[in-house]
Amino acid sequence: MSETLLRTFVSIRIPAFETIKDIIYEFKGLKNIRSPPFDQIHMTLCFIGDVNATLISELCNRIESALSNIKEFDVILKNIGTFPNKGDPRIIWIGLEADPLNDIVSKISKKLDLMNLSYDRKTFVPHTTIGRVNGKTDIHDIVEKNRNVEFGSFRCDHIDIMKSIINQSETKHTVIHSVKLIK
């Protein structure tokens, strides 16, 4: 019998602000750019990857424990950038500013280490992906025009453990467990 694996990550969902919709529509007008559906926009705090379904309950409990003393906080969506910064960009993003993000990521990482799970240990850069570039496209003018724009702000009152299912045309994210933060 084969084991069931769930592609998992920890994230904060981003509200579908009109300002974000507007910039996504602007990029969608260019060739070779694919943007996420508005209801799927999020900031990944930690990409875990494939986790055996039998470990999901423990994973949720450990992440809930990691976040047990985290208070609600404000998030500002500001600036546009690309990965990589120079050359041919592959990812278009909006930056996020919030005081406790690095602490939250550190606490989650420590709990994942205790489970001996393999996860993405890249340096955390707070952002939400608004476009993926698949080929040559000139996005320089749009990026420069929006480099210092504030796209909105919101109160983060929960953090989600998500699973993603990838098929030919899209990736669908679904909440496995939501952790409520302290008021």
Lateral strand order in the biggest sheet = 2-6-5-4-7
The rough form would be described as globular
* Proportion of residues in helical segments: 10-25%
Parts with pLDDT < 50 across at least 5 consecutive residues: none
Find the CATH topology: Cyclic Phosphodiesterase, Chain: A
E-strand count? 9
First-residue to last-residue Cα separation: 45 Å
CATH top level class name: Alpha Beta
Number of helices: 4
Structural class: alpha+beta
User: What is the average of the pLDDT values?
Assistant: 94
Elements, N to C (H/E): EHEEHEEHEHEEE
Number of domains: 1
Short synopsis of the structure:
This protein is α+β, with helices and mostly antiparallel strands and 183 residues long. It has four helices and nine strands.
Descriptive notes:
- The mean pLDDT is 94.
- The chain has helices at residues 18-28, 56-66, 101-114, 140-145; strands at residues 5-13, 33-34, 42-52, 73-83, 91-97, 127-133, 150-156, 158-166, 171-180.
- The chain is globular, with a radius of gyration of 17 Å.
- The chain has one domain: Cyclic phosphodiesterase (Cyclic Phosphodiesterase, Chain: A, Alpha-Beta Complex), CATH 3.90.1140.10.
- It contains four helices and nine strands, in the order E-H-E-E-H-E-E-H-E-H-E-E-E.
- Helix 2 (56-66) packs across helix 3 (101-114).
- By secondary structure, the protein is α+β, with helices and mostly antiparallel strands.
- The longest helix is centred in the middle third of the chain and has 14 residues, at 101-114.
- A five-stranded antiparallel beta sheet has the order 2-6-5-4-7, covered by helices on one side. It has a four-stranded antiparallel beta sheet with strand order 3-1-8-9, covered by helices on one side.
